């Protein structure tokens, strides 16, 4: 018989969230810790991770390890993961949340450097970290990997072409990696829509309100509103879900 409390309980588990010091990553870190997991908070800025870790430990009582990592640097990901295992001896949940979408004037003005940088952070890094963590999880008997992709993967716009291409690639990689590491390791994706994180503070409020009026829910999402889906995919509640790309976008057209 399905027991909701037991299914979503992450007590004794270790979860790693890249881009975990702010925005959606920070919300998911807190949700995982409140569900009982010890957490690794990773981003490029160690100071931000340290501050987030102190707050998580204070508020939840769980262990939070701050770590600096650049997910776009292939050669640094294995030593990074080694440190996680040295500290905890295991990893049960990986959420590939780190991402970037720099502004550019026109598509023809995009440099090779910018294009490569966007694909490295949004696609190459999550692929490599999933490959490394997935192999270790499979050897240990199981785990769950969640890739945070974007509605732009399905509805690309001229202003986010490299980002949309990278996220579409990550959607495809999610399905392939689910087959690579099944049956013990599950790999899924959340295709996220527009959320009101710290980045949204620079938006034109009136222009966004007009755009959001076309959403089924008529608004952008709050960061905490991604947490339920993340916990579902991270936990035993989704034991028969793998290779799935779940849309969480408030009904974006």
Q: H/E series, N to C?
A: HEHEHEHEHEHEHHE
Poorly predicted runs: none
Could you give the count of β-strands?
7
Largest sheet: 7 strands, parallel
First-to-last CA distance: 38 Å
Q: Which of globular, elongated, flat, extended, rod-shaped describes the shape?
A: globular
State the secondary-structure class.
alpha/beta
- Under the CATH scheme, the architecture is 3-Layer(aba) Sandwich
Q: Quick check: average pLDDT?
A: 96
Strand content: 15-25%
CATH class: Alpha Beta
Full CATH superfamily name: NAD(P)-binding Rossmann-like Domain
> Number of DSSP helices?
8
* Proportion in helices: 40-55%
Looking across the biggest beta sheet, what order are the strands in?
Answer: 3-2-1-4-5-6-7
| Tally of separate domains | 1
Description of the molecule:
A seven-stranded parallel β-sheet has the order 3-2-1-4-5-6-7, with helices on both faces. The protein is an alpha/beta fold. The protein has helices spanning 4-7, 23-34, 46-60, 74-88, 112-140, 161-181, 205-212, 227-234; strands at residues 14-18, 38-43, 64-68, 93-96, 143-150, 185-192, 245-248. It has a single domain (4-248), classed as Rossmann fold. It is built from eight helices and seven strands; from the N terminus they run αβαβαβαβαβαβααβ. α6 links the parallel β5 and β6 (185-192). It holds the Pfam family adh_short_C2. Residues 13-199 form the Ketoreductase domain. Belongs to the short-chain dehydrogenases/reductases (SDR) family.
